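Figure 6 in text form: structure in, sequence out.
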């Protein structure tokens, strides 16, 4: 069970670090799909995607890191 906590904690940290390129890629995909966007809309979309990836990664790393820390104390 501990290996899953460690795996998701590392995956969450990797997602935090990769949030900027992932967010930019999603914004470019939206730009391609819609055929063009205003620059303000594009930047807002990109910031939203980056923030979303950072939140998801932070939650995964935080919750799994806490579970890993607490599970080690019981034994």
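Output sequence:
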């Amino acid at each position: 069970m501990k290996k899953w906590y460690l795996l998701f904690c590392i995956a969450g940290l990797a997602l935090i670090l990769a949030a900027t390129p992932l967010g930019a890629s999603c914004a470019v995909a939206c730009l391609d799909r819609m055929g063009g966007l205003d620059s303000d809309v594009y930047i807002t979309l990109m910031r939203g995607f980056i923030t979303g990836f950072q939140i998801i990664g932070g939650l995964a790393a935080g919750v799994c890191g806490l579970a890993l820390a607490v599970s080690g104390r019981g034994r």
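Caption detail: DSSP finds three helices and no strands in the chain.
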